[in-house]
Amino acid sequence: MTARVFVVDGHPLFRAGVRQVVEDAADLEMAGEATTGEEAVAALRDGHVVADVVLMDLLLPGCSGIEATRAIVAAAPAEPGAPRVLFVSGSAEDDAVVAALRAGARGYLVKGVVGEELVRGLRTVAQGGAVFSAAVADRLGCYFSAVHELPVRAAFPDLTEREREVLDLVARGLSNRRIARELALSEKTVRNHVSRVFAKLRVADRVEAAVRARDAGLGT
């Protein structure tokens, strides 16, 4: 099945490059182009353009790519054949990527990707998948790991990084011997860590410590 691509970007040279890449792919075709978010929303929402994938830039004159994506997705949130948005932007900042995903985008590529990668991305998103440039995927992994760590650190501000690791393993039901093996420590060192964790959390035993830890998101 041929996937129809609609490009939203303010730079004519970029649009021309995408047009050439799409026209060279046997299973892709151009559905149209827009230079602003407002143009894109009007064309897609009013039915003037039928597209499977919207290739969206982040920084557009007037309505931003994020705002345009939100409007496009809201117009047909769960309808079969609704256009799916794939960002191609010069920015790979965490906030931009997360904002795009929250707006409903199915992927995020960094400008400068080779034609083959762009074609693969368009095909993947057209088929209902998600795609990210390698650099974006790495940053997302770090971002969400950091986001996960924030509530844990807030819940147990007195614990050291090692003590949080030990508490996590206690919450998973591991014995001191298993924890020692996991962290490459002696059992005596683990016992000392566990004792300090109990004292700092003011708990009496492993069960109570595990309950506190799981409430904060550890041990999963």
TrEMBL record:
Pfam families: GerE, Response_reg. Gene3D superfamilies: 3.40.50.2300. Keywords: DNA-binding, Phosphoprotein, Transcription, Transcription regulation. Residues 4-126 form the Response regulatory domain. The keyword NADP does not apply. The modification 4-aspartylphosphate is found at D57. Residues 152-217 form the HTH luxR-type domain. The keyword Transcription applies. PROSITE patterns: HTH_LUXR_1, HTH_LUXR_2, RESPONSE_REGULATORY. GO terms for biological process: phosphorelay signal transduction system; regulation of DNA-templated transcription. One of its GO terms (molecular function) is DNA binding. This is Response regulator. The lineage of its organism: Bacteria, Bacillati, Actinomycetota, Actinomycetes, Kitasatosporales.
